[in-house]
Amino acid sequence: MGLLAESLINGILIGGILITMAVGFSLCFGVMEIIDFAVGEWLMLGSFVTYSLIRFLKIEPLLLVPVVAIVFFFAGFFVQPLIARAVRGKQSLAVLMGLVVTFGISLVLRGSALSIWGFNVRSISSVISGTHVALGGFTISSTRLVAFSFGIFSTLALLVFIRFTKTGTAIRATAQNEAVAKTLGINVARIRSLVYGIYAAMTGMAGVFIGILFSISAEMGILYTIFIFFVVVLAGLGYTQGVIYAAVFLGVLQSLVTIYIGAQYVLILVFATLYLVLLISPKGLLGRGL
Predict the structure, then answer these.
(1) In angstroms, rounded to a whole number, what is the distance separating the alpha carbons of residues 14 and 153?
(2) I need a surface site. Which of 20, 110, 124, 190 has the fewest CB within 10 A?
(3) pTM score
């Protein structure tokens, strides 16, 4: 019983950091209607940028989270118009073209990472690495607890921003009806760049915590791309709030499978679960997706 409870707790904690990546991805799809195949590479790049900065500056990686957020925000802000240009005038093929373009971006990012950092596996050390806290009779990894707290805080902050600010209202209007948003005077192109920048920033920040929690490599992106696809599809495409439940579900599923069956079976069961959910509810677990 103790092992089961510990597995559930670890799964929930991992789900917290998955939320950070998936909520930006879901928002990006809702506004741009583009499935970004490069999400795992943005995450990988966030980990390696942090790795390089701490080697150069000799600074605690957690202090670099705001720096990574700013750098990746501007990177995403200026990359988005290139994606928009590639899919412009191809509305019937927008999703497919978006996949093709972002797949190209993922190859460029992965190839660049291999050229700069090579094939070797690296790790990021923090002052909280290897430390634990006692909570409710259980011993919990400090890094996982901090990552979970960050994931929940950043996700709630984003949802509050979208719900209660003028810019957030413009984002919601653009996601609901782009043509109407334009007639209301909203600069749709700028909103799309802003959303992609936010998405890149959140994914880059998640990369900091993934680098602290696990080992990193230039080829790690595809695994996290699969996980994020799972979370977003399970939540329902475009339904940002559902990402919270889906990410925690994936974290718990991954933890239980790893402990009781074996880590090599995680992806098999992830795909099997996703297949069953889509058979029963094509719009996601809560039936609120597109």
Answers:
(1) 14
(2) 190
(3) 0.89
Q: How far is the C-alpha of 199 from the C-alpha of 42, rounded, in Å? A: 10
Q: Which two tokens stand for residue 42?
A: 């943005």
**What is the Cα 256 distance to its own chain's centre?**
21
Considering only CA atoms, which of 174, 38, 34, 177 is closest in space to residue 93? 34
Which single residue is written with the structure tokens 């002052």? 127
- Going by C-beta distance under 8 Å and a sequence separation of 6 or more, which residues neighbour residue 86? 97, 100, 101
The upper half-sphere exposure of residue 87, i.e. CA atoms within 13 Å in the direction of its Cβ, equals 21
Q: Are 180 and 50 in contact (CB under 8 A)?
A: no
Terminal Cα distance for the chain, rounded? 39
How long is the chain?
290
Quick check: helix, strand or coil at residue 97?
Answer: helix
Q: Per-domain residue ranges for the chain?
A: 2-118+131-220
Q: Return the structure tokens found at 188.
A: 């749709």
The one-letter amino acid at 105: I
pLDDT in tens, 161-191: 998 999 999 998 988 888 888 888 899 989 9
Q: What is the DSSP letter of 281?
A: -
What is the mean predicted confidence (pLDDT) over 69-87?
Answer: 89
CA nearest neighbour of 216 among 52, 64, 19, 63:
52
Contact 224, 47 (CB under 8 A): no
